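Contributing new complexes? Match this layout with 5-amino-5-deoxy-1-O-phosphono-D-mannitol.
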Amino acid sequence: MCGIVGYIGNKKASPILLNGLSYLEYRGYDSAGIAVIEVNDIVVKKDKGRVKNLSSLNGINELKSSIGIAHTRWATHGKPSMENSHPHMDNSSTFCVVHNGIIENYNELKEFLISKGYNFISQTDTEVIPNLIHYHYYNKCKSSENRFLCAVKSAINDLVGSYALEIISNLYPDRIIVVRKDSPLVIGKSENENYISSDIPAILSYTKNFYLLDDNEFAVIYNDHIDFFDENLCMHNKEIKNIEWSASAADKNGFEDYMLKEIYEQPQAIRETIGTKLSNETSCLFDDLKISADYLKTINKIYIVACGTAMHAGLVGKTLFEKLCKIQTEVDIASEFRYRNPIIDDKTLCIYISQSGETADTIAALKLAKLNGARTLAISNVIGSSITREADYTIYTHAGPEIAVASTKAYTSQVVLIAILAIFFAELLGSCDKNIISELKSDIIELPIKIEELLNNVDKIKEFAKTVYTQKDMFFLGRGIDYCTAMEGSLKLKEISYIHSEAYASGELKHGPIALIENGIIVIGIITDSNLVEKSISNLQEVITRGAKTLIITNQNIGNLNFDNVINIPSTNALISPILAIIPLQLLSYYISKNKGLDVDKPRNLAKSVTVE
Ligand code: M6R
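Output block (do not edit by hand):
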């Protein structure tokens, strides 16, 4: 839940570290710090607050070193403060560490170290690590040939939890040691310089060649080479990957905020996600997905497991798999699934959706299914992310880097990919009428143009945002597939505008929540399923009668009724209508947040990838 960057080479490290941190702020932004080795001494500059505060700290521009590590924090142990900010040093200022993750047994380790005479300055779990390294360096590893690495490895052996770590030492000013377990870390290779980061976009402007570090793998990084070691410290060669994303994919490209840029990138993200997998002429094809019709015939249940927005994409997936493949499909929140002993066996296919591929609960839920004999399929936007390494099968959305905390283009790309997957399964199983599939394919292919149409007509939603941004509560109502859109619309509003909102299946409202409807409250209704138009309208009339002001998002003929605002969206197959219906709602949240003067891309208390439980 934090971001880490590192650099070793022949350039000044500090500007590179600060630049990398600014890209990683989406992972946490309550404090930031860097450490470099200046003439055999480690110099640390850190403080609470954002990276721009760090950039203006006294002396930071004078740092000359070309080796350094850096961190932007999302506090878990200890409030945001200078002392709790990373990097952390051991008592003798010999070893310096930045850490993303959580050390679960830090109290026990702290007690052990205190008994050996070590002191602690911070309340963090991380501070035990440099001190443990120091302890092992001067005890267990005294006569080791590779003493620094031995001390790091011995410290790691003591840790329970998750970590991506960068470690420097003034005794070894020519190297950075990194290791990871259940937290992401990539190494970017260039000519006589190497970069380290929690994600690829942060260092994409420097290189396109990456090593994706595995769990329990160590790398000792010098400016001109990198040595990789497995968990037993045996050296091995590692394959380098070329990442095709363009560097500008991680920039705002003239947009005021990443979220707005990403909303406008949706047509392209969907085109890329469709790629060559779907066409009107042939059956759907996933190049690397070796799932056979024989295997699919043995499945009696699909589970879709994810968190937040990705889970909402899964809810749309449920309808798609049940309608097209006739396979019972359940959707679960990963943090619930992993602790409720779900009934899974070798006849269950478990699908995990995660933009980042690093969400701790989703990864744990995947491991659980594997233990119970189910096959697992990951849907991720990040090549080589943790979830893709664990799953039996992986398919990727091609949305490009998503930086804003609020997910937009990843969501619509996920729904598109799941729709194509459901068609692929249905074609293998022969479970759906060919004409229905053919029409659905055409509708999917037309989505990017229809989204462009929506994005070219935003005035109405902008105006509406101006009239409602001071509201305290809002309701989102929908039936059937529109209920999925209501949930996603409500989540978007909550997270970036801090307006309390609830999503309800319209028919459920009268079983309690309608008591909350009072004069002037805003109710947003979504109506895209022709079979449910009358029923949805009746439910909305019930709230209008009780004083609600309404905004309707629809592609149906709803007549000339007493709705206050109507946004017409292009018509499409109801199964994929959430992809179009969510666009005005993403924009609504965005403009409400802007009207309130909030930080759209970095809403309070949140981080982009939730790599802790
Ligand atoms: O990276 P993931 O897709 O696994 O993330 C899951 C959720 O944390 C994420 O979708 C979250 O709900 C977003 N902030 C919503 O906009």
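Reviewers usually confirm one structural detail per submission. For this one: Residues 307-310, 354-356, 359, 362, 405-407, 491, 495, 609-610 surround 5-amino-5-deoxy-1-O-phosphono-D-mannitol (CB under 6 Å).
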